[in-house]
Amino acid sequence: MPIAGVAVAMVAALSACSGGSDAPGSPGGGAGGDKPAVPTPVIKISPASGTAKVRPDKTVVVTASNGSLQEVTVEADGEQVEGEFDAAHTKWTSKKPLKPSAKYTVSAKASGDGGPATASSRFSTLTPKLKLAVADVTPGLKGETVGVGMPIMVTFNQNVQDKAAVEQALEVQAEKPVPGAWRWINDKLAIYRTAKYWPAHQKVKFVAHLEGVHAGRDMYGVEDHSTTINIGAAWVSSVNTKTHMMVVKRDGKTVQTMKISAGKGTTREYTTTSGVHLTMERGNPVTMISPGKKEGDPGYYKEVVNHAVRISNSGEYVHSAPWSVGSQGIANVSHGCVNARPDQAKWFYDHFHRGDVVKIVGTSRILEWNNGWGFWQMPYKQWKKGSALES
């Protein structure tokens, strides 16, 4: 009997010490087992490290599994690339194109229950065969003030193939915003015109976000461009060739009334064009020669005129004409220009800005929309159809 009791005690002791499959901490939940390992965050970066000749329009993507991204930095030449996280902070995506011919460094940090993690990558972008840039912006003269009719004319150094992509990168910021649209005149020239004249007295900033933009086969934008434009007072001159008068208003107030003489109208080239003109340039003096004629031909002339302000490409100016003062206010005797008394022509010349409005009425010849800066001759609804983004 005592021996049996000992055996029972030993069995009981063994049962108490061995534990069962349901004991806390064991692989089945017993108290004394190891906890399962928590995986650390895994960060993936695209483009992969070491990748060369990456397209500038390629998107940089950084993702994290088993955790969330805390920080992502993508930079080249000291400039960081803008990007954004998704709602869960498990993905970061770049927002703008990359620089061509650049070496990029990517660094990322993530955190999770398994601890922090870091990753980095280096890649380089391709050098485009065709490098797109802005060759000229008009107006673009430093310190210049322009009129309320002034368009923004952008000339590129390459024939743009993907006009929609480039136009998407063109931005116009105005202190007093109004609707406007781009129109492509040819593969290198795009012009921005507002639906109505610019509100006077403001600054307008033009920005071409071209860097990295894929503009066609083997063509990428290589640099951004910005220009600030000063819009001055609303100078609007109204010319009536039938009453032979010109009225100049500044911000709606009449500041000058001038007797004028317009084109005599005996031929098409001697007929002043009716429509909305813009002042383009000036000269003092300007030598004017009869179009399509050489010396000795009937009707040939060569005259030197003072204080001349150009309003079209077909040879029309507002200028001084002391020889026709007797006809000004009475008859049209010019070769197509708007003539004025010398002192008043000088006044107009001195107050001229590129892009001021000159409205002419009373003749049978209509100003063509592409004659000089006659862009206001085209209805805005039609103008917009020249946009690569217009559906």
TrEMBL record:
Name of this protein: L,D-TPase catalytic domain-containing protein
The protein's superkingdom reads Bacteria
Cite the active-site annotation.
319 (proton donor/acceptor), 337 (nucleophile)
As given in the record, the signal peptide range reads 1-23
Task: Tell me which CDD domains the record gives.
Answer: LDT_IgD_like_2, YkuD_like
Source organism of the structure: Microbispora corallina
User: Which keywords does this Swiss-Prot/TrEMBL entry list?
Assistant: Acyltransferase, Cell shape, Cell wall biogenesis/degradation, Peptidoglycan synthesis, Signal, Transferase
Q: Give the pathway.
A: Cell wall biogenesis; peptidoglycan biosynthesis
Recorded hits in InterPro entries, A to Z, give:
Big_10 (IPR041280), LD-transpeptidase (IPR050979), LD_TPept_cat_dom (IPR005490), Transpep_catalytic_dom (IPR038063)
Q: Could you tell me which residue ranges the L,D-TPase catalytic domain spans? A: 235-361
- Protein's UniProt keywords contain Transferase: yes
Q: Name one Pfam family in it.
A: YkuD
* Disordered, as annotated region: 18-40
